[in-house]
UniProtKB/TrEMBL annotation:
Keywords: Glycosyltransferase, Membrane, Signal, Transferase, Transmembrane, Transmembrane helix. This is Probable C-mannosyltransferase DPY19L3 isoform X2. CDD domains: Dpy19L3. It comes from Acinonyx jubatus. Its main location: membrane. One of its GO terms (molecular function) is mannosyltransferase activity.
Length: 669
């Protein structure tokens, strides 16, 4: 009762804390509607625009029709947004807002953001429960929640990227991990097992429905299950259930997304099918001597890998799937399998979020003692896991008996083993790609707090240093986390209070001026071209039609974006006009921050990526590849501002301020 009450309270307090930070940073309650919408930057604005669109529709049916037959997100094309994007959450919220009697008391934008901050309460509560389940005491859950809050910079970014898909998905992912942790406990009652399976299925489904990268995260989970199943560290029947739930949840999402081909062609579906097929073909995988079993294991791994690649290639060829090829191009270039001049791959490679995890992250995590505690717990559990794995592989043909199974897993429980491999794999993911650190750091809080409160971990350590005593275990598992909690309160409480009292205000007058001008001076059906980040805001604030947008998981959209971005390349006005008019563009917005970019180093500026993709030499001092040539034209975004006849024949400047320049395209060549 006490632990459950604290879990709910700590979750709600975290939610209120993050909501207050958001309000204080922007003075959200006092700024204009257009400023609130501009604060939803890049793809966040695009997603929120569909919530707004559903609310503005005269009826729900017309709102659904507008999403299924959308011709404003991509000009000259009608697309099914429910198929292309994960926006069912916006649809659900818009229906709730219409149905509930709250319109008089709560503005639509507040209903939206409060829902997201409410999900953070669920997220923290799920982390708390996972740690509690692993350690057996709610004290570890409290420590996990404290670590999550004190490491806020590295555990969440919800307060400044509210509508981002991961902020919807990660709470359900945390619930799923908590449910799996409970499910892997031995000797569950049949009713408890069925209810837990239901919880796993529902959370897996909701996680998959709310984030386009669901398949890659669940593939990591499937690899965790495959590793543990192969090493006899969890019951094979339970692993099969989890493989099945993953596929069922994903296929159900596929149906709801009008048979989205990217889901059908996902590596997860191919991998899970391959594991189940290979297991049927290799029935005696878990018998024999150490070398015999090791050989079978390597053969099994090879068979699963080959079958996965074979099935995936067959599915992609049948479906003619190219939606996710940019991800594999990016991974190929990132891990050094040859340099690439592919524009899409380089666009990702040059973004800090897709780079390696910065070293200063570990300094921040160490300040709260989280990183030290994590390494301590990880070291002990890895040693235990290696001992159990070696024992299991070395065992005789009696390995499969339940008594022997229980004997082998005393050192490392199945639920502990699952969370260990989970944290290791997601750790590698975070180290390689900074944007994915939020999946790791939140689980790091859970894993470190569990270890400090776990009697098994302290027993292993005290036996190792020959100081084992049951009383010492009890003292260590309660005194260490309490001391850390006191340290966190002493060191970080004053800073958190200062943070809550610090008041700022949203200030972006140039973008506000641009949006107001578009609303007042352009036709409702006008088509705008520009950077995909800015155009998401244009759609949200003005409702105008776009040529391109930030939801990049579509091959034709990627090609279209590259074509539109020629406005920042060295191309002739005739070429740029032809390209833009081919997408129906009436206006083009040029941004000085892109044209004269200094944020990235040479070779990573957007104009450099375009030059390389076009075979042109880059600007400025520095080396160029020998096969790159001088461009035959000056850079379009610079030269157009000189108002020379070749440019004014095609483009007329209709708006400018310190940041933006808007040009109207002539209808005829």
């Amino acid at each position: 009762m006490v632990g459950g009450t604290i879990a709910l309270c700590i979750g709600l307090l975290t939610s209120v804390y993050l909501a207050t930070l958001h309000e204080n940073d922007l003075w959200f309650s006092n700024i204009k509607e257009v400023e609130r919408e501009i604060s939803f930057r890049t793809e966040c604005g695009l997603y929120y625009s569909y919530y707004k669109q559903m609310l503005q529709a005269p009826t729900l049916m017309q709102g659904f029709h507008g999403l299924i037959y959308d011709n404003k997100t991509e000009s000259m094309r009608t697309i099914n947004l429910l198929q292309r994007m994960n926006i069912y959450q916006e649809v659900f919220l818009s229906i709730l807002y219409r149905v509930l009697p709250i319109q008089k008391y709560l503005e639509p934008v507040y209903f939206y953001i409060y829902t997201l901050f409410g999900l953070q309460a669920i997220y923290v509560t799920a982390l708390y429960i996972t740690s509690w389940l692993l350690s057996g005491t709610w004290l570890s859950g409290l420590l996990a929640a404290f670590w999550y809050v004190t490491n806020r910079i590295d555990t969440t970014r919800v307060e400044f990227t509210i509508p981002l898909r991961e902020n919807w998905a990660l709470p359900f992912f945390a619930i799923q991990i908590a449910a799996i942790t409970y499910f892997l406990r031995p000797n569950l009652q049949p009713l408890s097992e069925r209810l837990t399976l239901l919880a796993i299925f529902v959370s897996t489904f909701l996680f998959s429905l709310t984030w386009q990268f669901n398949q890659f995260m669940m593939l990591m989970q499937a690899l965790v299950l495959f590793t543990l199943d192969s090493l006899d560290m969890l019951p094979a029947a339970k692993a099969t259930w989890l493989y099945g739930i993953q596929m069922t949840g994903l296929l159900l999402v596929c149906i709801l997304q009008f048979f989205n081909s990217m889901i059908l062609g996902s590596l997860l579906i191919s991998f899970n099918l391959s594991v189940l097929i290979a297991r049927k073909l290799q029935k005696n995988l878990k018998t024999g001597s150490f070398l015999n079993r090791l050989g079978k294991l390597l053969l099994h791994l090879f068979a699963v890998l080959c079958l996965t690649l074979f099935l995936n290639n067959i599915i992609k060829k049948i479906l003619n799937l190219k939606s996710d090829e940019h991800i594999f191009k990016f991974l190929k270039a990132k891990f050094g399998f040859g340099a690439t001049r592919d524009f899409d791959a380089n666009l990702y490679l040059c973004e800090e979020a897709f780079g390696l995890l910065p070293f200063n992250t570990f300094g921040r995590l160490s300040d709260t003692l989280l990183f030290y505690a994590y390494i301590f717990v990880l070291s002990i559990t890895v040693m235990a896991a290696l001992a159990v794995a070696f024992h299991n592989l070395s065992d005789s043909a009696n390995q499969q008996s339940m008594g022997q199974m229980g004997k082998c897993t005393i050192i490392l429980k199945p639920e502990t083993a699952y969370n260990l491999i989970h944290t290791i794999l997601f750790g590698f993911l975070a180290l390689s790609t900074m944007r994915m650190k939020y999946l790791w750091t939140s689980h790091m809080c859970v894993f470190a707090s569990f270890g400090l409160c776990s009697p098994e971990i302290w027993e292993l350590l005290l036996k190792l240093i020959h100081l084992y005593n049951p009383k010492r275990i009890c003292i260590m598992r309660y005194s260490v986390p309490i001391l850390i909690l006191l340290y966190l309160c002493y060191k970080f409480w004053p800073g958190m209070m200062d943070e809550l009292s610090e008041l700022r205000e949203f200030y972006d007058p140039d973008t506000v001026e641009l949006m107001n001008w578009i609303n007042s001076n352009t036709p409702r059906k006008a088509v705008f071209a520009g950077s995909m980040q800015l155009l998401a805001g244009v759609k949200l604030c003005t409702g105008r039609t776009l040529t391109n947008h930030p939801h990049y998981e579509d091959n034709s959209l990627r090609e279209r974006t590259k074509a539109v971005y020629q406005i920042y390349a060295k191309r002739s006005p005739e070429d740029v006009h032809t390209l833009l008019r081919s997408f129906g563009a009436d206006y083009v917005i040029l941004e000085d921050s892109i044209c004269y970019e200094r944020r990235h180093q040479r070779g990573c500026r957007l104009r450099d990526l375009l030059d390389i993709a076009n075979g042109h030499m880059m600007d400025g001092p520095g080396e160029n590849d020998p096969d790159l040539k001088l461009a035959g034209h000056p850079r379009f975004c610079e030269e157009i501002k000189r108002n020379l006849p070749p440019y004014t024949a095609y483009f007329t400047r209709v708006f400018q301020n310190k940041t933006f320049h808007v040009y109207k395209l002539s209808r005829n060549k």
